[in-house]
Predict the 3D structure of the following.
Amino acid sequence: MSIDLKSYLKLLRIKNWRGYFLIASLGFFLSRGFLFPVRDIIFFYLIILLLSGFGFSINDCFDTEEDKLDKDKENIIVLKKISFKSGLVFSILLAVLGLVLSMKFGLMVFLFCLVEILLILFYSSPPLRIKSRPLLDLVSHGLFAGTLLFLIPVLIFSKNLILLHYLVAFSIFYFSVTLELRNHLEDYETDRKADLKTTVCVLGYKKSEKLLRYLAIFYPVTLTPIFLLINWQCFLIFLALTLTFLFLVLFKKNCRIVRSYGVMDTYAHICFILLIYYYLRI
């Protein structure tokens, strides 16, 4: 029993939840969710954790062919520690439980969670398997691993969407698209051997690298109107951060943190922390 439990926990891939948790927490803070009862906060984070677990577990269920070709990936189903059927049932239970909990916050939150689950499902599973459809793989990831995760807490704790929320949602969508492109670049060889038609496989590795670089360079454009809405002091700090980021990306190409796009992650995290700090002071 303990071995089975350990295998199911590995299927959740908890170590990979950080990005989802941070995006949802951004929505939580910008909607001042910390002012709500502890029970509501616990229910919200349970929903996010369940949806994150579902995303990774259902992905492992249907990624067995390409994961067999990657020695660095520890897919529990490929290793036959859990059967495909057991993994699928476990994934569905996570999704259903997340949906049931979302009903506590009303119809709109339930519908957003339902769309989130359906996008994750269609992304990984046949017959649609969006992850193998060029451009749609990037767009779908931008939605379920970005925009929707941000908007769910906003709908729970703020109810009304304002201009700031829409701008942040778009910026997160853009950032999530770049993350997906980076993931597919890392998986290029195994995806190609498994005959997956991802955007990177269709464009080719070098063209995809160029696309990713251009997306990174123009990422600050999606953040600029957000900080213009706050105040001039906040915008000046953002401008200094942006100039530093662009300098590194444009003139320090061989630096490891630039090559790995860790500089983009750091820049995004600092910008959103800055946004939270100044927005909560308003």
